[in-house]
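hey can u check if this looks right to u? its 395 residues, i copy pasted from the old doc so theres a chance i mangled smth
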Amino acid sequence: MNLLSIFNRKEHLFQDDLNHIEKDLHEIICNSSILVIGGAGSIGQAVSIEICKRKPRLLHVVDLSENNLVELVRNIRSSIGYFSGEFKTFALDCGSKEFEALSINQSYDFIFNLSALKHVRSEKDPFTLMRLIQVNIFNTIKTLRLFSSKNHLKNYFSVSTDKASNPVSMMGASKKIMENYLHRESKSQKVSMARFANVAFSDGSLLHGFNQRILKRQPISAPNDIKRYFITPQESGELCLISGLKGENRDIFFPKLNEKLDLIKFSEIAKEYLKSLNYDVVECDSEEDARNNAEALISENKWPCYFFKSDTSGEKDFEEFYTSDETLDLDKYKSIGVIKNEIDYDEKLLNKFELEVNRLFEQKAWKKNDLIKLFKEFLPNFNHLETGKSLDEKM
């Protein structure tokens, strides 16, 4: 399948910029030791592959998923092959004591943290939501401090999200709060970040679900009123790589909007996707209608689809990479914008947020509203969109 054709594009977003800085990237990587945290997820794998293309002196990849790490190794060995540098994977939780032990015994020049709970649906219950806070915010700070204390780390990169711009979801707000904590850390450790759009066919995404529905011969469903920007997994890896290796302190990289990148409805992507597989789209009136007619329609090379209006919590109807009060550099790169940040954080607010989260955690009982209240105290303009419905209630 040609991903670019589905998005009506002929070339990758960042190719011109990569051509311009490729020599620098190669020289940095081949002389560096690099750690990728969350390296077996879709974006983490993309970053790891981009690093391996440029033959690192040392690459270590950490992830909770032992199976996905195995596939990462197989993918790299079957495509890029081998290089003279050290390449190891570790099936570890980056919040664990085992990871702490790794930090004591190993130093790195660059760290890429791609570990995150990235789905808006993760706020559906208070327990998963608390884990989202721990992973997206506090594990980020913990892993940074473990390695920056050695005064060897040249840059710590952490992935953010476009949903951190004027957030309406707890996931987006958690990344905005993470950015604030990284501002404090940036006084003693250089950091950089990236905000970007939906990564097409990344694990767990709606488009990845399209693949699963095809394999299982099940109907496809998608909202017809939600627009998103889409980048390929390769492009997500490239943007993170450029930010992590070339970004200045507190920089946040994002894809510049141009003729190559435009908002597209999920329902339109579904149609283009099925067209690329030579299926005719049949729009059904309900989920039940789509399920009941799936077998008959698919046997005729037609695919049942149910398109609906979104009504779930935390879903913005459009995406934005920055806010009106952020300072931008739109000249340095052709297809990449950079948000330039001065140090800006409230020490008391950071400490209070952490104390309150730990207090709730120690109680071992909390409600979603407790955490929403904390988020709103930290981000006064946080306009949480709560409908009482989750994507888990959708097909």
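The chain has a mean pLDDT of 93.
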